[in-house]
Amino acid sequence: MNSEFIKKMQVTCTNCSLDEICIPRGLSHSEVDTVSQVIKRKKTLQRGDFIYRDGDQFKGLLAIKSGTAKLIADDQDGNEHILNILLPGELLGFDGLFNDQHNCSAVALETLSYCELPADNLEELCQQVPSLMRELFRHTGSKINNDRNMIVINNRPAEERLAAFLIGLSDRFSKRGFSSSDFTLPLTRQEIGNHLGLALETISRLLKQFQTSGLINVNNKQIKIRDIDSLRNIFSQPR
Amino acid sequence: MNSEFIKKMQVTCTNCSLDEICIPRGLSHSEVDTVSQVIKRKKTLQRGDFIYRDGDQFKGLLAIKSGTAKLIADDQDGNEHILNILLPGELLGFDGLFNDQHNCSAVALETLSYCELPADNLEELCQQVPSLMRELFRHTGSKINNDRNMIVINNRPAEERLAAFLIGLSDRFSKRGFSSSDFTLPLTRQEIGNHLGLALETISRLLKQFQTSGLINVNNKQIKIRDIDSLRNIFSQPR
DNA sequence: CGTATTATTGACTCCATTCAAAGATAGTGG
DNA sequence: CCACTATCTTTGAATGGAGTCAATAATACG
Fold it and tell me: Sign (positive/negative) of CA torsion B203, B208, B213, B219?
């Protein structure tokens, strides 16, 4: 994206509605301005479009403005594994930090717009805006903690995994100002199963079971959480 | 590389035998000197000692000089899950980057010595030594990639998990200058099982099976890899 | 040397997968 | 707008991989 496009859009970090949850959180007004000048607004993508592909050169860290995405790792035999899903306001691209080459792929799950904090400016920018460095470390730390939480969750029984997944979505939607009780699953049963290491039939059966127990209402991809405390209890009970 | 510096009495990053694999990799001589001045050499710990505990204040990033350690997450019901093991020359502590508070515990698996890059100097130090920032981002990126690899591996059959674990150890030992074919498992069967999400009996049975197939020799914790290619093939075969 | 921890091995059980088939939903073009 | 098709979801029945239980053996340790 070129600079005239940026001027045309008139969207900057300063007036972006995500400014509280994206990178600039924790930065002063003038610091946000500085960062905003190098942030690139990228074009909108459609469902199924790749944001980046495994092996692509790392060009920068990305922030989702609207829409959702999935991170997928391609394993040896060509199957793909959904590592994570990304909601509006969340950051991605950290898998490129190690060797300037992406280590997994990112795919839009629906119409999606995003911003980029270019990698080539990163060092100088952090020199100019020291607290940006701190924020970036915070975000990398957060990603590490999330991934490790996923490792722990993935070794628990199917029921707990799905409950944790739903609770996680609820919390994250809530943090972004969406309803914590009513939301649309951005993934198919197949994809949820893939993400949680379960068969799609298991997801279907468990959603039904959760509904029967009065924990949630399910209508295809539409979820209504009816008893969030009991749902939370599912994975905080001793086995 | 730095052989002319190995005359100093004190152990510094400049003459540390780990200088190729620890933080200073990628820094110039003078930069390593600068970093070396703030690095703290910590006292030696014994098996079972905590390096840090879940919830502890984050004091800095740590590099293991000798010995091995495990990272453990305490889940809701008091069970612990071994997230990773750390070999000499490897870094830990990144789980404290998010909110200046450790998100898991680190425990010595044997007599262990380590260094600390203090957190309170980090911002200024990165201002003075810009390439340190790049190196730190590289390391955080590496941790993220490793954890995600773990997520993918953990959803595969038991045989593949254990093969991947052994190959991973072999590669990492090799990178540190140890034998890639002969090494001692730093974990009990119980701990390996915990780490891989398998029962300890399954580990025992699979090690036996690998030995019977001529892939490895097992003598309690002593492992000899006899056919590393076939071992690698176990998890690069289509299912 | 005796005790505690760790490892092996077998038999049985169970959670989740796989296979299979029918039903629902969304998207497309005539 | 409806019919047609592809995709997604539900549900049941059978299978199997890994867990659990249990008992013995080996190793480490004070």
Answer: positive
